[in-house]
Specification:
2 domains; 7 strands; alpha+beta; 5-stranded mixed β-sheet
C-alpha cells in the first residue's frame, strides 16, 4: 500500500513540476515580448568570413534571432510563373512587405530553439513549421537563381506563414538573411501544386 501511495505521489509531483515549468516559460515569453518591442536588425558584415554556425551547432539555439531584410534579398526581375521577386514594389500587393517585415520582427523576439520548436499540421501529422531546406530540393529555377546571385550556401532556411506563404533565406550564426518572398509556395513545390 505504501508503494502505491509513493507512486501516486511521485506522479502528482511530476505533473505539478511540469505545470510550474510551463507557467514559468509562459511568463518569460510574455515578459520578453513586452521588453522587446523594437526590432533587432543585424549589421551586415562580409559574409565570406562568417561560418554558418558557431563551433558547436547547438550554440545558436539559445540566441535570439537577428535578421537582415534587404541587403541580401534577390529583388530583381520575376519568376517564370509571373511572381515579381521585389515584394517592395507597387506591383505587389501592399501587404506583402508588411508580411515579410512583421514576420521578421515577430521572430526576432524568439530564440532559435523556440523558432525550431514550432509545429504545424494535424494532430496525426505534426511537422516543423520553420526549418532548413537543402538547396538541391528547391525547384531548378530557384537553384539557378541562387547561384546567379552569388549564393554558395547549400542549405537554405524557410519560414512558413500560413498555408502557402514562405520567406526564404539562409542563416549565419543567429542571423537570418532574407532572400526571397514566396507567397504561392512555388520555390519548393509539393505534390498538391
Amino acid at each position: 500500500m505504501a508503494e502505491r501511495t509513493s507512486k501516486k505521489q511521485a506522479r502528482i509531483d511530476r505533473k505539478l513540476a511540469k505545470k510550474l515549468e510551463k507557467q514559468k516559460r509562459s511568463v518569460r515569453f510574455s515578459e520578453r515580448v513586452q521588453q522587446d518591442l523594437n526590432p533587432r536588425l543585424a549589421e551586415v558584415v562580409g559574409t565570406e568570413e562568417l561560418p554558418r554556425t558557431g563551433a558547436d551547432p547547438q550554440s545558436i539555439m539559445q540566441m535570439r534571432m537577428d535578421y537582415v531584410l534587404h541587403e541580401c534579398a534577390d529583388r530583381e526581375d520575376e519568376w517564370s510563373w509571373g511572381q515579381h521577386r521585389n515584394w517592395c514594389t507597387t506591383a505587389r500587393t501592399s501587404g506583402d512587405q508588411c508580411v515579410v517585415k512583421s514576420t521578421m520582427i515577430m521572430m526576432s523576439t524568439l530564440t532559435w530553439a523556440e523558432i525550431l520548436d514550432q509545429r504545424t499540421g494535424s494532430k496525426r501529422k505534426r511537422r516543423k513549421k520553420h526549418h532548413d531546406q537543402s538547396w538541391d530540393s528547391i525547384c531548378g529555377e530557384a537553384q539557378s537563381r541562387w547561384l546567379k546571385i552569388g549564393r554558395e550556401e547549400e542549405e537554405l532556411f524557410r519560414f512558413r506563414i500560413g498555408s502557402t506563404q514562405r520567406i526564404w533565406g539562409y542563416r549565419q550564426k543567429s542571423t537570418f538573411y532574407v532572400v526571397w518572398w514566396d507567397p504561392e509556395h512555388k520555390i519548393y513545390p509539393t505534390e498538391k501544386d
